[in-house]
Amino acid sequence: MHRFWLITGALAGLIAVGLSAWAAHGLPARLEPARMAAVQNALTMQGWHALALLIAGLMAERGRHLAHFAAATFLAGMILFCGAVWLSALSGQSLGPIAPSGGMLLMLGWALLALAAARR
Q: What is the CB neighbour count within 10 angstroms for residue 54?
């Protein structure tokens, strides 16, 4: 299962880089500054949490079982937070509490990762 987190983290990083290039070259002319700032925030969160997935995958490989839960919350949080921010930035539609819920999952993932590192 740890390989799934490693692969998912690598793919999330790949997608973040591709979306960053698109945002830098295709979006600025189309989006107002506030929406462009939201896109940058989503890209930053995805990039950091792609790395977090890789770390969780490596910790899970070493038998840190809580790291699997951390990785799952990172993935769910990334999808919810980044997806909701992208939708809002591109369409102007809000998904209500989806982005904050995703953010809470991302924070929970970090707490679980800390617990996984502290426990043996």
A: 20
Give the whole-angstrom CA distance, residue 40 versus residue 27: 11
Q: What is the pLDDT of residue 7?
A: 95
Q: What distances in angstroms separate CA 3 from CA 6, 83, 93, one per listed residue?
A: 5, 24, 35
Q: Which two tokens stand for residue 49?
A: 């949490």
Q: What is the pTM of this model?
A: 0.91
User: What letter does residue 94 receive in the DSSP assignment?
Assistant: -
Where are the alpha helices (H) located in the chain, listed in sequence order? 2-25, 33-61, 66-91, 98-118
Q: Hey, what are 66's tokens? A: 């809580």
* Residue 111 Cα distances to 66, 99, 118, 120, angstroms: 10, 19, 11, 16
